[in-house]
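Re: [help] complex structure
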Amino acid sequence: MWAMAMKEFRQMRRDRRTLAMMILLPVLLLVVFGYAASFDVDRVRTVVVGPRAGQVAAALPERLEVVRVAPGEGREDAVEALRDAEAAVAVVTGEGGQPQVLVDGADLFSARSVVTELRGRPGLPTPEVLFNPGLETSAIMVPGLMGVVLVFVGTIATALGVVRERQSGTLEQLAVMPFKARDVLAGKLLPYLGVAVVDLAVIVIVGVLLFDVPFNGSPLVFALGALLFLFCTVGIGVLISTVSETQGQAIQLAIMTMLPQILLSGLIFPIQAMAAGVRWISYLLPLTYFVQVARGVMVRGAPFEALLLPLGMLAVLGAVVFGLSIARFRRDLAPSGRHRDPGPAAEDQGEDAPTRAGAR
Amino acid sequence: MTTWGCRGLEVRYGATVACQDVGFEVAAGTVAAVVGGDGAGKTSLLRALAGTVRPAAGTVRRPAERRLGYVSAGPGVWADLTVDENLSFAGRAYGLDPAELGRRVGSLLERTGLATARGRLAGQLSGGMRQKLALAMAVAHQPDLLILDEPTTGVDPVSRAELWRLLAASAAGGAAVVVATTYLDEAERAATVLVLDRGRGLLAGTPDEVLAATPGLVVEGTARPPGVPSWRRGARWRAWSPDGSTPPGTRPATLDLEDAVIVAQLRQEPGWSSGGSGRAA
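Output below.
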């Protein structure tokens, strides 16, 4: 038994990445997620419109953080502010009587906290919940979960597909074939993208039919968001594959990128409830922006213009991740730069600073 | 005549020098063997020739990538594709049109004896069949330079002979063939031989030139002769007599490539470079 334990210990000690994951990751996760794990929303962004906007804004409870006061605007403008995710609450005032309070049901935790607070105070108006009137959790979770499924397909399947090529020794074979690195990558990724698109369509249909998730916005905007998000997840998958020798290592790294995305993207815990120190991590995660796009399009029916920021961020993150992954993949596949030489014969000159071997 | 190869080649992996000042040439229509033990630098030399490793120094001359065929030391085939699918993939990768591809695949399947296995997954083939498939994939586009990294290692003798027949056929078709091997009997079939030891070229030339360059005398006997380096060959002992004398109980042996390589390696060791005092190998 001791011989077996010693052998195992020695193997574990040499697999430094796994060892680091076993020791450091739990601590890191506990600290990060400890600060993130909160459903309590203290401040809710609020716009106040109508003739008495200034007067009513001053009298609102502290929880409602007024971000805009617009006496010249009316209910339609207030609804638009919620649809565009400018605020989670809109207060519409008239010449007299009680103001209307509109709440964005797609911002579930903010909406619940406001509804609870207003209903518990006599004399305050009854809030009207828009987009998700029943404050259904499924209507909010299912669009976000689509992103999680895309992370699974895009990141894990892609990373495994590329690493399998390296682990089985066929990446070296590909390296000598007359392919450009981008052709190998594109050809390799196309089937995974195809599967991911089919997956996405199935999830949308199941979500709408089985869980009554609304689809109020433009399918084209949703498709654009999903495509940009896939671009990011597949890029992360390729990046993982370029630093992994085995499929086991690729899975470890994929999980390390997935956990923060699932827990810090606003999918489960509202971002505005997170400590400021971890909130910035959320803003670096592609799933954060896909969740915004999916909920925006499906639940609120947000138009393209209202989603420019998350769509733009997905495009930027995708370009950065994909650019990095292509550069690393190219270095793995064609270290001699041979694929850039179309001539009848090639001659390599030695260099002072050679790259590492492409084939391992 | 077109020749491919390298001059003053140096390959490094970080601080490790895999090849140093290696020169090598292979002419069209010939087979060149690269011989050496584990860690001798064979794979690094072949990778530099194929272009998957950038040399730290020296020059490498090879044809354009579409005119190059390569069988790596790994499996070289996609285990979850069938024999047919592997060949089709290789042919398409090198730009063969469907009609030409169909003709060549049919011909290669016949020549390699894989016709009856064309629907089987490559991962289910025996080692010899898998290597024949890898070779067929590498020659499907009729390359000018064919590079094979130990294609016969772990392969049974019959399959080894078949693989060499296919290599010879490629050379007869005009290709320059470079094959790394640890089997010296195979290397004797090549037109030229390069023997590598610890990343450096130890011997080079035709097999006859390599044998002729061996100094002293190789002898054989039934018992281990004292005072000279000796090694077993089957049931008998062979020994190298640096000064050309015949130790008691031995007689001159018919020198072959294996003896020549052992002698060359012995000469690298201190004390034997000029025929020193007795040491057992």
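The longest helix of chain B spans residues 157-172.
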